[in-house]
Amino acid sequence: MKINERYYPLLATLAVLVLLYGYGIVEHRAFSDTYVLGALLTDNAFLIITAVGMTFVILSGGIDLSVGSMIAFVGVLMAELVTGFGLHPLIAVVISMAVGTAFGAFMGLIIAKFDIQPFIITLAGMFFLRGMCFLINLDSVPIDHPFVSDFGGFKIPLPGRGWISAAALLMLITVIAGVVIAHYTRFGRNVYAIGGDRQSAELLGIPVHGTIIRVYTLSGFFSALAGVVFAFYTASAYPLAAVGVELDAIAAVVIGGTLLTGGMGFVVGTFFGGIIMGVIQTLIAFDGSLNSWWTKIMIGALLFGFIVLQRLITRSFSGMRAGAT
Amino acid sequence: MSEQTQSVLSIRGAAKFFPGVKALQDVDFDLQSGEIHALLGENGAGKSTLIKVITGVHPRDAGSVTLSGREIHPKHPGDAQALGISTVYQEVNLVPTLSVAENLMLERQTLKFGFIAWKKTESDAKAALDTLGLDIDVNRPLGSYSVAIQQLIAIARAVALDARVLILDEPTASLDGEEIKTLFRIMGELRAKGLGIIFVTHFLDQVYAITDRITVLRNGRLVGTFVTRDLPQIDLINHMLGRELAEVSSHRHLDESGFTGKGRQIQIKNLGKKRVLEPVSLDLSGGEIVGLAGLLGSGRTELSELIFGATKADSGLVFLDGEPVMLRSPRHAIRAGFGLCPEDRKQDGIVAELSVRENIMLALQGRRGWLRPIARAEQQKTADEMIKALGIATPDSEKPVGQLSGGNQQKVILARWLVSKPIFLILDEPTRGIDVGAHADIIKLIKELCDEGLALLVASSELDEIVAFADRVAVMRDREKVSELTGADITQDKIIAAIAQ
User: Fold this and answer.
1) How many helices (H) and strands (E) does chain B have?
2) Domain range spanning residue B302?
3) Is A5–B77 a contact, with Cβ atoms under 8 angstroms apart?
4) Rounded mean pLDDT of A92-118?
5) DSSP characters for A106-140?
6) ipTM tops the 0.85 cut
7) Which residues of B touch A206 (CB under 8 A)?
8) What is the CATH number of the domain that holds B155?
9) Do B96 and A319 make contact, defined as CB atoms within 8 angstroms?
10) Which stretches are transmembrane (chain A) (predicted)?
11) Is the model's pLDDT at B21 over the cut of 60?
12) Distance from CA of A211 to the nearest CA of B (A)
């Protein structure tokens, strides 16, 4: 039986992951330890959470450049609420996530109502949020609270020396939630339809505007959650944190096999994409002799490969509009 | 026959106005359940406007649309769909990246506890395709199937939406013979189930093969509704093209041509392309106007584009004074001294943002190559001369062409070719969308051009126009040249007979 062509990019992602991980295990004995796995999940948790939101945006045919600034903004806002106002971190989490989600919804509203390029609006959002960080706080501040240390100390032991941290656990829950939203709700399928061919989606009776607003709301929610995880993970907030994370998230989505033009892809692929980026980083750290910029070179090469692969797949489609590719 | 009671869709006095255009005026239309009803007319006759009024793309300006006895006011295609009017367009409006099942079931997936139950959704999709006798893997992306299958899937979706009225807008344009047979079989089955089907096409043989009744529109008005088997094809074509009762007598023969010198010879030999145009041969010489007649879709535009190199031919050659001309792209054609004023000047001809001067200079500059720019002063002089010579109504040569009226835009395109001193000029529907005054101007211009030794090929669906200026007429039908008329044979009757034979 022929494998459905929609799975090709996902299979390519898995193959790359297995190859890289396998190479690591062969080259470095310590690589097979679950400690590496646990660290991968924890260190890349905020990136993958952001990338899950980004997956929906890219599936809808859009882009969200504001997520990196959002992570820093949420961290700074939380730090201010906890240390400045003396609120409990959980209340600070609820407030900052509400603000972040509302900001995402606001950008979505402008994108949908005025039919503006998401690139421009989220670029504006990126500058705006980064600027807001400095309005609240100019320096790096620690978030000092027993709850935060408890969050950092939470561990589910894995066989071997590894463990799953609270950040990793939150990330895994996010990925599962993302998979369910994308594949088992009408909203999720409508996102795919709009990204595949917006004009047709409209004629098929899909509420295009509402769906787009919800996509950016979701991205705002997930990047705010990533901001919370990042702040707890580093136990501090810094206005210049997570610069360029939006680009890492986009890379994770594309390496995860999602079509950059929208309409095709899998949330679980984004998870693998994020892990692949982490594995490359770990491999280079293990090697010791290579400059850390080799991570960027490897990721760049992978992106080239995946984008060409996507092009080959969509080119075989008949009836694909020029505008949709 | 008690038409009123059986009508599933009934339209009375429908009208739609756009700024300066009466796109639809006082049109009545009745569709019965269990019938296939052809909607025919040339370009600009109002077919698509009528469909857009029915489906709610355009709100109507007057008249009533009644569906099963109830007046409806759909605001957008989704509205019409919910009411039971589904439309399948020539360009398939489904999502190529989604699976077949999803395309069929979007927004109608079976939910269990708020989540999609995929098994049930897929079996529903399979059932919808089964009704059309289509057995394909519903999990593969739609885009991996041929356009014909996609077309059928679009129909399956429309039918599954409990449609009472199905509108098929040129569904056969991109299908081959076998695929058309399948489509017709399915249309027949849907008719037997009591659906009312509106079938828009420009293939008359298909109209006779499948439809029960025919409604013809012309210039936004209703010509009439006829029972297909009682309407001979020649009468149908008469209705579609419309004829003035008085035969235009301003006939012009070659001997009247003011051109006396020796004309350049252009020979088109077996020029054709698979699935686009059967090989066509045609000779022209300088100082001669050859008309290209035929219904919409007969191959008029296709032939023009092949000669100009805008579409690459896969057979045949064009010779200029016995020498073969390389026509791999419009650039080659321009270098050889050919010009084309396309049918859709908004899309293919003018560059709306550029000024009149820049538009006029485009072809000449293209012919010289971009490395040898034409001096600004020279450009200005040429543009001013042309504006005066052709009577282009513009305050100055720097006004963006997009702001001029249709007739003046057409003159700018003509001017563009004239300054490049072409040997052979092709005009595709030169008078489309132009007001009466400009219309006469353009016809006069065409004749003058010819007197200067230019060879002209003019494609037009206005028969009176062709009769008025052509020395010879090539008649196209079903993407083939079927006849060539000369001299006294050039009458509207003879042309219609050639189209219908």
Assistant:
1) 17, 22
2) 254-337+422-500
3) no
4) 95
5) HHHHHHHHTT--HHHHHHHHHHHHHHHHHHH-SS-
6) no
7) 106-107
8) 3.40.50.300
9) yes
10) 34-58, 65-85, 91-112, 119-143, 163-184, 215-234, 266-286, 292-313
11) yes
12) 12
